[in-house]
Specification:
The chain is α+β, with helices and mostly antiparallel strands and 330 residues long. The protein contains 12 helices and 12 strands. Bound molecules: iron/sulfur cluster.
Length: 330
């Protein structure tokens, strides 16, 4: 691990000022991903800015029935178990509980989860020379290497990595809005614009600016989000990242689909909002035939590689099962 200095931020302004003036400074929150990356030599910050004492742990209703605000430092376990989340946004609670282990969820924060980096094997191994995300211009080891966990949608020739988060998939389906604060003030970023596809710059995961800190995540009021389900398919029953996951939210009226929100995990560089599937479901009868047609529509553009083509059919089946489970809810 390289030497670094340590600063404990006393307020968000100080934190943003430090990271804005030192390009190699990193925010330290739960540290559940960053410390691993530092130990591996993938991240080499010269300064850590500890924000754990900042008052950003709230989980509270927004005024006028406007939804729920989750503080950037709210721990994953606290969010997953909070009555406002369990009752109004069960898909988010389920996604969080499907992630990592209880010990990790007790430390991992909402902001940190949004910034989780890919679990691509080549990215994590600095001894391996080819990784455009770790070393821009070096190539992509996964493209012709072992790519079982890699992307089938939205990838580029530069990078086929996936976003590993479960929480992010549920936030994408719920149209969450990320609140950030920077040296120039505060701004709101819709979740769909927060994470990036790899394109020619896979080294840049998000549209968060260098001097910006995640202060909160807002969930809009979605009355039908009580009918929602998170399905995670993985190699073992716990403490594993998703091969494919689905966050499904259904608005049903007399057996017809009035609206649907679907996001996929484990298949793309960002949580993948399944807009083609959503369009295919609109106004249709909620049955398996409809769900399969929606899944086919979404995965029509999917492209697999040597070891991950199985994900295409797996994603279709996962969409059908998640929608069927949501539709069957009382
Ligand atoms: Fe690096 Fe992305 Fe290729 Fe993995 S998929 S080796 S993260 S460039």
């Amino acid at each position: 691990m390289n030497p670094f200095s340590y600063t404990r931020a006393v307020d968000p302004q100080q934190a943003t000022s430090v990271i804005g003036s030192n390009a190699s400074a990193k925010i330290l929150a739960g540290g559940t991903n960053l410390i691993d990356l530092m130990k591996m030599g993938v991240e080499r910050p010269t300064q850590l800015v500890d924000i754990n004492r900042l008052p950003l742990t709230q989980i509270e209703e927004l005024p006028n029935g406007g939804g729920v605000r989750i503080g950037g430092l709210a721990r994953n376990s606290d969010v997953a178990e909070h009555p406002l989340i369990v009752q109004r946004y069960p898909v988010l609670s389920q996604a969080l509980l499907a992630g990592a282990s209880p010990q990790l969820r007790n430390l991992a924060t909402t902001g940190g989860n949004l910034l989780q980096r890919t679990r691509c094997y080549y990215f994590y191994d600095p001894a391996f020379p080819q990784c455009n995300k770790r070393q821009p211009g070096s190539g992509c080891g996964a493209l012709n290497g072992f790519n079982r966990i890699h992307a089938i949608l939205g990838q580029s020739e530069q990078c086929i990595a996936t976003n590993p988060s479960d929480m992010n998939v549920a936030l994408a389906a719920l149209d969450a809005v990320v609140q950030v604060q920077g040296a120039k003030g505060a701004r709101s970023i819709p979740i769909g614009d927060f994470h990036r596809l790899p394109g020619d710059t896979p080294n840049i995961d998000t549209n968060l600016q260098a001097d910006e800190l995640i202060t909160a995540v807002d969930l809009p009021a979605i009355p039908f989000a009580t009918r929602s389900h998170y399905l995670k398919i993985r190699d073992r029953a716990s403490y594993a990242f998703a091969l494919v996951s689905v966050a499904a939210v259904l608005d049903l009226q007399n057996g017809k689909i009035n609206g649907a929100r679907i996001a996929l995990g484990g298949v793309a560089h960002k949580p993948w909002r399944a807009q083609k599937a959503e369009a295919a479901l609109q106004g249709q009868t909620a049955d398996e035939k409809t769900f399969r047609a929606a899944a086919e529509a979404e995965l029509a553009a999917a492209k697999g590689y040597k070891h991950n083509s199985f994900k295409i059919e797996l994603a279709k089946r996962a969409i059908v099962r998640a929608l069927s489970t949501a539709a069957a809810m009382a």
